[in-house]
Design a protein that fits this description.
Keywords: Membrane, Protein transport, Transmembrane, Transmembrane helix, Transport
Number of strands: 0
Main location: membrane
Helix content: over 70%
Structural class: mainly alpha
InterPro entries: Vesicle_transpt_Got1/SFT2, Vesicle_transpt_SFT2
Membrane topology: Multi-pass membrane protein
Strand content: under 5%
Distance between the termini: 30 Å
Protein name: Vesicle transport protein
Length: 89
């Protein structure tokens, strides 16, 4: 819908996608802050995955914890990716 409004209005100066707009806040963090956020998300994800193994006999709890743990672990990589994207020309 935003692209449609952009085409109708003739405003073509802004070519960034929605995800690039949202990631500017993450990439504006310092290197140390990104590493702390990466470590915290990864650790929380690993803890959730470990807890899911403990409650393996209850399928719903297992599924929720395991899924949330995987999302946190994979999401933590976004903090690492910003350091690589920050220095692209």
């Amino acid at each position: 819908m935003w692209k449609l409004k952009q085409l109708v209005a003739g405003d073509e100066e802004r070519e960034e996608s929605f995800l690039e707009d949202e990631s500017d806040g993450i990439c504006s963090l310092s290197y140390t802050q990104r590493m702390y956020a990466f470590a915290a998300c990864l650790l929380a994800g690993l803890v959730c995955m470990f807890l899911s193994i403990i409650v393996f006999v209850r399928p719903i709890k297992f599924a929720i914890l395991f899924t949330f743990g995987n999302l946190l672990a994979v999401g933590s990589l976004r903090y690492r990716a910003c350091s690589a994207n920050k220095y692209d020309v």
